[in-house]
Amino acid sequence: MMKMKTRPVEVLRRGHMACPGCGLSLGMRMVLRAMGPKMVGVVVPSCVAVTSGPFPYTALGVPAFHSAFEIAAPTAAGIAAALKEQGKEDIPVLAFAGDGGTFDIGLQSLSGAADRNENFIYVCMDNEAYMNTGIQVSSATPRYTWTGTSPTGNPRRKKQIMEIMAAHRMPYAATASIAFPEDLTRKIQKAKAMRGTRFIHMLSPCTTGWKIGEDMAVKVAMLSVETNVFPLYEIENGLSYTITYSSRNLPVEKYLMAQGRYQHLQPDQIQAIQAETDRAWVDLQGRAAKRKEEL
Amino acid sequence: MKRFITGNHAVAEAARLCRPQIVAAYPITPQTPIYEKLSDWDAAGELGGTMMRVESEHSAMAVCLSASLAGARTFTATASQGLALMHEMLHFAAGCRTAVVMAVVNRTLAAPWAFWSDQTDSLSQRDTGWLQIYCENNQESLDTTIQAFRIAEEIKLPIMVVLEGNFISHFMEPVEIPEQHMVDGFLPAVCLPRRFDVDNPGYAIPTVTQQQFRKYRKLSQEAMEHSLEVIEQVDTEFAAHFGRSYGLVEAVDCEDAELVILTTATITSTARVALAELRAEGLKVGLFKLRIFRPFPTAAIRAVLDKAPRIAVIERNISLGREGIFCSEVKAALINSSGHPRIQGYLAGIGGSDVNPKLIKRIAHHALETDMVQDGPLWMAEDE
Description:
Chain A is α/β, with parallel strands linked by helices and 295 residues long.
């Protein structure tokens, strides 16, 4: 008899409010599928909140709370603490926030929660600008990137959120990509099995803000990994680095030129981005090698 | 058991007796001793629940409102700048219909920097949808904190128990601390809705339309109005359990009064002394204590003050560009009164400056002897 294959339970339901081709909604779907329906979700103003839908509709198949912009982490901490008091410590709490809600306005409260090692999973859906309000620069926006408030290109470098989180010596922090669903799923499931503050940084290509086609989110996400712009790795206890995917080391130009937001770049700017990416990649490999030596 | 303790200690005792499941707090003068006392008990395993030492007041309120939505009994305490930092969260906690109980220890808002009692911090939060109860002394601060959990959990709106910095927070008074079983008999185990049920998932606080927003605001307003009954009923039950009650307002010698002095909080206890002396002088003066500020007890005020010839509002706060906030509110409450009371606002005690019986008597004489009422406030101070 033929073995029946069952489809996984989709927690993010059809009819969500994301733009067509949205990378973030794919990421939400994968994260929630890996978590399963037994969890409590926290969303804050961001594209995640838009995607989740307006009253009386919701795309989320789990109990969830649309909390305030800068408090994803303490919201999750408060719910987790209440569930513990009610003897329901087995129900995990997962918070979604955007890059603005994580790198900028929510950084203090996230740092506080991570410092106390509160018990929740935090997923930063990073689309590298304030997309929910219409493409304004954030501290997650990479250098030279066009946004509505950096019309000639962002002069600042992207804030290194993973290093900031690692500095908290939290149990688990990992990058994840919609182009690598197995890697993403494994990381979510690994995080789910742990306790304390766990952080996932997911690059979420935005068709509108990145000026890419509706069929390009996964490809651009894939290129971000293959060019080492967004390497896939995990950090345990803030110190132990593991690179979870060996990239093809493609030139960054391939990633940049796939997107409308970089069409204004000059050759020297592309070279500068390449040099910076190379430096960061060598640094990351060094950290991972140090871990191997220790093992 | 009666003990000689500070107001902060009294509030902490009350909070502990109410068995909060989540306490989230952050230090700020003059509230910090509440946080420290609860931490001591937490360390000794006598607090129960989870104590979260958060990185800001903003996060303290974020934790409390989230835990309350999850169905937990929550408590925090703050003052001044910390309360101002919470402002956004206060609207959110009320809009989410949580039952957070918070002690607010009145302190000046900077600038300039100061540490003394001034009610402008809590009164600035007037429109956030929180109930506000102003306490006169240490005992009332303890009792009101216990009452607050009952009220908040019944009406599902958050409550500020407001006590003045230094005058209550750090001054010591004999306080009757109830036995645990007495409090347990008065305040049952928490029974709030648990909004995050994995077997029956719902999405709390989604985006709504204009009409839906209006509907929710109206429901909150109705809950506020209804809460006056709940406050009175809880106060009556409290009296049955503990032998003490406070009412929405308190009127002393107002029946025949040509002048009613209207006060809140600690100025009230000083005014009680002044009142006795004024009556001894043969002056027909009464005292009216406003205890509940939100919801505003308009009917209770009108029942006593509709026909009062003159009212002097003495207060320790100011809405710059207008007058004392209690004065504005009392004027608005009495605008339709048949007796058309003449209401004069006196700003005394701003910045925590001393309001002694002598100053109150001076104000009373001024109010009785002056025929013209000024629309703006009169500044009166002990050293002027």
